[in-house]
């Protein structure tokens, strides 16, 4: 392989990809070239992976057929920089906040890129190299591994951003619908923000067990008992003050809405189909988080208040990316966070 090329995953159909040689990207002005160490599989990667569609489908150029696929939970080492970036950053270990904006609008000026009308995502991470605006590549804190660092942006940023939109007050009761990696982050965010009672709802025993370890006070298996009744039983029949919702399924969405008390607040990171009700309850959408808030979130990680290390159940080399996606998509009872290592 010459220095002009790199190995990258390219999608070839539903749930399959090849590893091929493609041109290595060259950092442009204000960009950095990052040698990828880890790319963690996100639930948002799975939608494109399972689809036979290999076209450009979504906001931010979310194109599952591009070299490196939609990989966006990234860590690595800066290997080269473009014009306008100090060469002293070469060799720096970094994680990437993938949600970037136009750098011209008021939202971008406040480092709230997720509010930019032209927000997009840095992706292509299932490859040996990616380019990124250099200021979106942030130093990995001392003591944080490459694999954990790859999860900072989306697995801590997204649930913390969503939790903050709920404005949880000390002592409130919070129900968390779905205990995948984002849902477990919502449990941790609720605990950090002062919830007294945290009820986690998920079909999978492994995820309920981890939710208890990370701060849930109660867990419910919705296949074994009615989760709405369980939440009401814990709240004198009123329902939860706050529901944090991370399950993209209509029945779960309806249950989550029903478990919310009147004038309660629900934040969803999974979208929200019509709930069929006219109840006076507030539903707030959330996408990603504010870049400006990451220093506080990273402190939560290095303090041990927010944990990402127990999420990693599997790691695979790039050559086994098809198996990695298979385990993440089809074995939710044993996999949580699956990381593809590019080195
Ligand atoms: Zn993601
Ligand atoms: Zn902007």
Number of separate helices: 10
**Mean pLDDT value:** 94
Unique bound compounds: zinc ion
Helix content: 25-40%
Task: Indicate the CATH class of the largest domain.
Answer: Alpha Beta
The name CATH uses for the topology of the largest domain is: Quinone Oxidoreductase, Chain A, domain 1
Q: How many structural units, i.e. domains? A: 2
Largest sheet: 7 strands, mixed
The CATH architecture classification of the largest domain is Alpha-Beta Complex
Identify the CATH homologous superfamily of the largest domain: Medium-chain alcohol dehydrogenases, catalytic domain
Radius of gyration, in angstroms, nearest whole number: 20 Å
Number of DSSP-assigned strands: 19
Structural class: alpha/beta
Low-confidence stretches: none
The share of residues in extended strands comes to 25-35%
Distance between the amino and carboxyl termini: 15 Å
Q: What's the overall geometry? A: globular
Topology as a string of helices (H) and strands (E) = EEEHEEEEEHEEEHHEHEHEHEHEEHEHE
């Amino acid at each position: 392989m010459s220095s002009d090329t790199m190995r990258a995953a390219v999608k070839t159909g539903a749930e399959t990809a090849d590893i091929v040689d493609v041109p290595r990207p060259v950092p442009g002005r204000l960009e950095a070239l990052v040698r990828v160490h880890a790319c963690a599989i996100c639930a948002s990667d799975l939608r494109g992976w399972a689809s036979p569609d290999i076209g450009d489908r979504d906001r931010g150029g979310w194109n599952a057929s591009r070299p490196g696929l939609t990989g966006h939970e990234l860590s690595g080492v800066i290997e080269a920089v473009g014009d306008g970036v100090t060469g002293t950053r070469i060799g720096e270990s970094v994680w990437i906040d993938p949600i970037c904006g136009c750098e011209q609008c008021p939202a971008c000026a406040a480092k709230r890129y997720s509010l930019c009308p032209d927000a997009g995502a840095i992706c292509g991470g299932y490859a040996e190299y990616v380019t990124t605006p250099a200021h979106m590549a942030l130093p990995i804190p001392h003591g944080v591994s490459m694999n954990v660092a790859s999860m900072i942006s989306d697995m801590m940023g997204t649930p913390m951003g969503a939790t903050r939109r709920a404005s949880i007050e000390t002592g409130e009761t919070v129900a968390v619908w779905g205990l995948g990696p984002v849902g477990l982050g919502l449990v941790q965010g609720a605990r950090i923000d002062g919830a007294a009672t945290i009820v986690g709802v998920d079909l999978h025993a492994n995820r309920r067990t981890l939710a208890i370890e990370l701060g849930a006070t109660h867990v419910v298996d919705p296949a074994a008992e009615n989760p709405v009744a369980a939440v009401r039983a814990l709240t004198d029949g009123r329902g939860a003050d706050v529901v944090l919702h991370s399950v993209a399924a209509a029945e779960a969405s309806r249950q989550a809405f029903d478990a919310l008390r009147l004038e309660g607040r629900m934040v969803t990171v999974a979208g929200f189909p019509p709930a069929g009700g006219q109840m006076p309850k507030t539903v707030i959408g959330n996408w990603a988080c504010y870049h400006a808030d990451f220093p506080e979130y990273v402190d939560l990680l290095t303090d041990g208040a927010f944990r990402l290390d127990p999420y990693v159940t599997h790691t695979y080399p790039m050559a086994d990316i098809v198996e990695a996606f298979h385990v993440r998509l089809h074995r939710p009872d044993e996999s949580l966070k699956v990381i593809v290592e590019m080195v």
